[in-house]
Every structure is written in C-alpha cells, then in structure tokens.
From TrEMBL:
Sections of the chain in a coiled coil: none
Binding site for Mg(2+): 486, 492
Organism the protein comes from: Blautia obeum
One BP term from GO: regulation of DNA-templated transcription
Gene: pnp
HAMAP family the UniProt entry points to: PNPase (MF_01595)
Alphabetically ordered keywords of this record: Cytoplasm, Magnesium, Metal-binding, Nucleotidyltransferase, RNA-binding, Transferase
Name this protein carries in UniProt: Polyribonucleotide nucleotidyltransferase
Amino acid sequence: MYKSYSMELAGRTLTVDIGRVAKQANGAALMHYGDTTVLSTATASKEPREGIDFFPLSVEYEEKMYAVGKIPGGFNKREGKASEHAILTSRVIDRPMRPLFPKDYRNDVTLVNMVMSVDPECNPEIPAMLGSSIATCISDIPFDGPCATTQVGLIDGEFVINPSLAQKELSDLQLTVASTREKVIMIEAGANEVPEDTMIEAIYKAHDVNQEIIRFIDKIVAECGKEKHLYASCAVPEELFEAIKKIVPPEEMEEAVFTDDKQTREENIREITARLQDAFADNEEWLAVLGEAVYQYQKKTVRKMILKDHKRPDGRQITQIRPLAAEVDIIPRVHGSAMFTRGQTQICTMTTLAPLSEAQRIDGLDEFETSKRYMHHYNFPSYSVGETKPSRGPGRREIGHGALAERALVPVLPSAEEFPYAIRTVSETFESNGSTSQASICASTMSLMAAGVPIRKPVAGISCGLVTGATDDDYIVLTDIQGLEDFFGDMDFKVAGTHDGITAIQMDIKIHGLTRQIVEEAIRRTKEAREYILTEVMEKCIAAPRDHVNKYAPKIVQIQIDPQKIGDVVGQRGKTINAIIERTGVQIDITDEGAVSICGVDQHGMDEAKKMIKTIATDFEAGQIFEGTVVSIKEFGAFVEFAPGKEGMVHISKISDHRINRVEDVLTLGDKVKVICMGKDKMGRMSFSIKDVPEEA
C-alpha cells in the first residue's frame, strides 16, 4: 500500500514515499528533500553466507549524472566506478548503521542509495542517510534502529542545519552527526580550526535535530514496518568457551596478549589456537567456530584487563602515548619527505609540487567543486601488517583514510594566490599497529613544511579508544589506541587539529552510541595528546615551513596581465603561447582573470618567458626598447620579431646612421638586434628604429 509522509526539516520539506516503487526489496523508501530525490533500498539474502565470521554488509551511494542534467564525461557515456565522493558517502552511511545489526547475523545485506535528482539547496547525502535507516527499519531485516543523521555548518559564528551547497562554500564547519534515540553514534567533521567547545555544541545541536527525525521515522515504522524475520544465530556455544578455559586458563590468555610487540602477541595466539585445534580435533562443530571463539576470548580478556584492572596490553598508562619519533628529508630528490613513527605505526609521506594545471578535475554532482589542487593519497600495503597479498589498488578504507588526512590539512594550506602550486602528498604505510590515518596527518604536515609549502600552522592527529561496561557510567577512555585496543574496544575517535582548534574528526564505534560525557572526555583527551605531539615531537623536528621550495621542485612565478590581452598571449589556435613554451622550456597557465603562472626548473627560461609575456601584454608606446630577431628582409627594410608572433618593421632609413643601399649590407636573417618603438606606420604596423636606440640601452 502506497503511503506518503512529510516533515519540515531545516526549513525544507522532507517527504518519504513508502510502497510506491521497488516493492520487491525487503524495504524501500523514495526520499524527497526539496527537489532532491533519492531511492533508498534494503535487501537481505534468504540464508546466511557460509564460512564467514563477520556480518556481510554492503552500502552503496550511486551518483547518476542525469540528476544534475549532465552526460558522463569520457568515451563511455555511462556511469562507471564510484567516485571518491560516493565512496566516502557510503562509508558515512555504513558507520552508524553497522553497529545496529545483530553481531551474530551472517545474511548478506545490501543498502543502495540512488541519487536521481539534485536540488542545490538540499544535499542528497541527507535523504540517502535517512533513507537507508528508514528502508531498513520498515523491512523484515533484524535492525535495532532507527538512527538519524544531520549536517551542521558554521557561518559567521552561527550554526546552520543541513547547509546548502552554496552555504557549505562559506562554512567554517562541515559536520555530520548520526544518533540513536539516546546517544550519538557517528561523527564526521572537517573544520577551520573550530574550538573544542564550539564543536561539542554543534554535535549536540545536530543530536537534538536527530531526535525530531527519529520520532518521524517511528511513525512511519509503526504504520508500514514489517515483522523482523528470524535467523540462525552464529554465536559461539557457551560450552565451547568453558572447554577452552580449561585448556587455556584466563591468566594464560592474559599473559599471551600482554605484550607491546604485535608479532609476539600474534605468535602467542597462533600457538594457543593450534593447541585448541588438536584438543577439539574430533568435534567438527566446534572446529568450525574455533577462530571466532579464540577471538572472543581475547576480546573478553583485553576488555577485562583495561576496564577492571586499568592494564593495557602493552603496559602503558591509560593516557600515555606510545614512543614517538619524527624525521624529515629521508627520501632524496622528492620535493619533500617526512616519516612519523608512533610505536609500531610508521608512516612516510612524500610531497610533490606541480603547476596549477595539474590540479585534479572532478566530474560529479557538486556544481561548486570541479577541481581540487590539494590531493592526499594513503596506501596500506600488506607487508605493513606482516601479511602477503597482491596489490589491487586502493580500497574504500585507503580512500577514506586519505580523505580524512586531506580534510585535516586543507584549512592550513596557503591559497593559490599565495602559493600557485598543485600539491600532492602520498602517505606510505611502512608499519601498522593502530591509527595510521592520524600518523599520516603528522607525517604529511612535516613533509609539506620540508617541501617549502607555507602552511599557516602544523596539524597533528591522534585517536582515542573506549571500553564500556554494563552501565553508561562504567567506561574507560584510552589515549592513542593500538590495533588490539581498536579491534576489541568500542570506539575509534580520531581528532586532528592545530594548537588553536579542530580541523577534522572521524568517529567509528561498535556499540549503540556514546553519552555526552564520553564525547567530551574523548575530545579533551585528543586535545591534550595533540598539543604534546605538536610541541614535543613535530615542532622539534621541523619548526616552520622552509622559505624556499626544494631544488628539485618546479619553480613558479606569477604575473598579472590585462584580461583583454589574454588572446594576444595565447595567439591564434595557441600559436603564440606554444612558441613561448617551445623556446623557453616552461609551462604556462593563464586564468580568465589574467593571472599568469610560469613554471619551470631553469630560471633563465622562466625569466625569458616572463619577459616575452610582459612584452606581448603591454600596450606599445613610442620610446619602448625591445630586443628582437631579424625574421624577414625586404628591399624597403627588415622585420624584427620582438616576441613570439609579434613583429615590427625597421625601414631601411632607420637601420644605420649612415646611408645604405641594401638592407643585406648591414643585417642578415637571425641577427639579434635592439630596436626602439617609433609608433605605428601608415599601415598600422609597429615601426622600429635601430639607429635611434640610445647607447646606454
């Protein structure tokens, strides 16, 4: 039965159509927010997937170019693989949804959000996030929802709920918050050094709006929701746990995991697993879930050690950061390099500088962001965790980590006018044991400074973890979590920023939300740790950006010309500008406003190109002196090219201070001569003189 529901959300109407389309999905919601339209569906397989020990959830955000009246670019005129923005949006939808499914559910679940129409006033991410929650809630798929998501901007000190695309361009904050009925379950933010107190206020502004949306969803579910289906639980039998404890007592498991060396700990667990496999060799049912049982045993042991005994696996105090080290200039010939090490997490970042023409072009649904001059890429090879597998290019995790570091650093980068370069940083993970994304922020900051990029302030990142007990007050927040504490804990709360404020947040959790007390403590802890990393490690390694770019980096000079002269500099079909490039070996970029960037590695060539462009773009006046080349000789005089494609004529009477019969008696083709402008002749051509050039010129 088709039903439609509406509510006012941030000054616009949100409408949800149920039962109108996609009726064969387990759940479907056709979302309308203003003129933005998104179809959200939720489907689940009939049976659990065999042989897996995880919940197989897939979230897709599909951008259709017809939604903004475009035909896809390239030769293949249809949508291809997901854009980086689509992948990041899928991750933001996934993170609050995943913890609300049963932990022992093994049926495949796919959430698809298809963007069909985009209203610039209504961001399609919002109806997609809400649509996934609604479609899953009304379906028969087991799900402990609803959850709701709101975005917050900050313009001139005022919070803006669900800002439009135009408002996002002006905002000092791009915050996305997802909530359940009582708690915050996901935070994602990029910010221009927003103070911690302001960030907390913004988070709970969004949380309040989310409660209104949840009440709206509850009404839809009450009228349209299906009964949740039963499923075969994949929980580990309790009797298996008891049998394991008799063979491996709790104190032995504690000793196995209580080490600061990741490889030693993994070897200890391998030995324990092998003993248990021998012990249960005759019980195929137990062997099938033994890996999960050992994982759960480790998890219970680590959580008990931390929560009750305040002991961390590597022996650190609750607020203690692992040993830190920082270096710059470790890779020769690249434009900038730095390595940051935190315990067994090690990142090396290389910086590359290039002309602005090398900026990344973006073909997507956002009409404002069509190019990107700063690109951060993050790589996570298998050797960094002691594993072996072929490299198949970056996955969603790598893309997400790269985007997080990029978002953290964008607020401190110089403008294109101050520093006319495209900038790429690549973070290579040499070793991983927790929070490599935040280490890549630290390494990238130092690499940029080493490359001579005049960033306004250094940025550092750190992550906090969480272990919770039976009640909201029974918890402990951990500063600088390592891999084991991330795997077995309840939260990975990443915060990056400068001394003065936050530039990025990403929060992942595995439980049904965080209280305000936990959120505030995590933000306070990350600030303390960030200050320490900046002051005691990074700034002692490199205190400020270098005052020059690396000798191997291209040099760029900028000049401004009259926009009316751009056509003269470019020439017919690019003939003039291509001639300048060919003669000087530089690269030239010109904006519509007349800003000319000249890029090269040879200073002489850059100076020549600059001189040529200025010559072409200058209104010629009598008395100006030029250097040129004789390119043509006639009976009545010679033509001198003083800039690519620009010629003037020297009459035979103006060549020498004494009478000559033939031009060839004084000049030959290719001669370099100085000439002075005499104005224009009767035919409108530039008229030059050689004999009237002052001796001192």
